[in-house]
Amino acid sequence: MPLTILVVDDDLGTRLSVSDYLELSGYSVITANDGQEALVMVDEHHPDLIVTDIVMPQMNGYELVRRVRQQPVFRLLPVILLTARTKTQERILGYQSGCDLFLPKPFELEELAAAIRNLLERSQIIQSEYRFSHKESLGISASTKVVDAYNSLSTQIQKSHLHSSLTHREQEVLELLTHGLSNAEMGHQLHLSPRTVEKYVSSLLRKTSTSNRAELVRFAIKHGLVE
């Protein structure tokens, strides 16, 4: 399953632009209009990361982060604060509330996506080490624990960056690519414009770290991304 990101902002335009970009990047995205609504979403959906504005009605971003951090299960949940406020004291308040990253507006969506990938990878490593330590406290042999922790971390990262990171539409485009279809031909079958198809192809190249379509197809077949 794709990793879930909660986007919290009272500005509809920001919510839509961020959520659309992240969905195209392979994440499952849920949204909230303010901090109060976001708290409910956190309890219901247990997101893997939160991206939130600071100035919002009902409950601001600072209070949202503090409330989230009060729950032990969410102590390590990565949080990115977005805001037009850039004063040093305001950034300090953000970090004191428990955020992991402070990103000033306006920001580039590509930069936000890079920060999210970094925080999620770090979060997975920390969770894996926690499970490793927990097993150690239960008296499991050292050799077994090392193998289990390594396999668990490798599987999580591989799954996140390969199978789980692909959206349904990207999977469709990738499948058609293996048949050697052009953008126009793929667009005709998927009812998309050639330009939109090219965006999905570019996203696939980025996610697989391949430089052209031939490499992408070989990578997909090698890693079982297509049938």
UniProtKB/TrEMBL annotation:
<dbReference type="InterPro" id="IPR000792">
    <property type="entry name" value="Tscrpt_reg_LuxR_C"/>
</dbReference>
<dbReference type="Pfam" id="PF00196">
    <property type="entry name" value="GerE"/>
</dbReference>
<keyword id="KW-0238">DNA-binding</keyword>
<feature type="domain" description="HTH luxR-type">
    <location>
        <begin position="159"/>
        <end position="224"/>
    </location>
</feature>
<dbReference type="Pfam" id="PF00072">
    <property type="entry name" value="Response_reg"/>
</dbReference>
<keyword id="KW-0597">Phosphoprotein</keyword>
<keyword id="KW-0805">Transcription regulation</keyword>
<dbReference type="InterPro" id="IPR036388">
    <property type="entry name" value="WH-like_DNA-bd_sf"/>
</dbReference>
<feature type="modified residue" description="4-aspartylphosphate">
    <location>
        <position position="53"/>
    </location>
</feature>
<dbReference type="InterPro" id="IPR039420">
    <property type="entry name" value="WalR-like"/>
</dbReference>
<dbReference type="InterPro" id="IPR016032">
    <property type="entry name" value="Sig_transdc_resp-reg_C-effctor"/>
</dbReference>
<protein>
    <submittedName>
        <fullName>Response regulator transcription factor</fullName>
    </submittedName>
</protein>
<dbReference type="InterPro" id="IPR001789">
    <property type="entry name" value="Sig_transdc_resp-reg_receiver"/>
</dbReference>
<dbReference type="InterPro" id="IPR011006">
    <property type="entry name" value="CheY-like_superfamily"/>
</dbReference>
<feature type="domain" description="Response regulatory">
    <location>
        <begin position="4"/>
        <end position="120"/>
    </location>
</feature>
<keyword id="KW-0804">Transcription</keyword>
